[in-house]
Amino acid sequence: MVVVQGYVKIKVIKGTDLVVRDLFRSDPYVKLSIGEHEAKTRVIRNDLNPTWNEELVLAVPDPPLPLKLFVFDKDIFKADDKMGDAEIDLRTLISAAKLSAGLVFQEGMNVRKIVATPENYFAKDSVIKFRDAHIVQELTINLQHVEKGQIELELRWEPCNP
After folding, report:
1. What's the pTM value of the predicted model, to 2 decimals?
2. Range of the domain at 144
């Protein structure tokens, strides 16, 4: 039996400089998964710099599995083309939320900074901050297994027992 320790609310903000997978364009969407659970954004037609601003929610088991992100080009008459992927370790976000439980923070206060490295796929340093009474991580991910492209996300931790 899988024990759920909480939920991560993922705001898929935008993609930047995504690859062309059709003749001159792509119709991108993002698929997210944690273990068996999946969610995806809507398709944005003819756009290599799409703005989704969509919030998706996935359950996080205990112990936490990574958040897997896949970008696809939607096709009608053939299988969707891969436009890159990445994997995000949720343990830093969860530990920051647990350590800050019961503490008083000022709105917008930075709780932790994660330096971008080739191992974490961050395009720039990621910040975990206190916003709207929640712990939120802002990050921009370099897509892997593809020539170029980035996805900007915001992760918000929601424990099962606040």
Report:
1. 0.93
2. 4-159
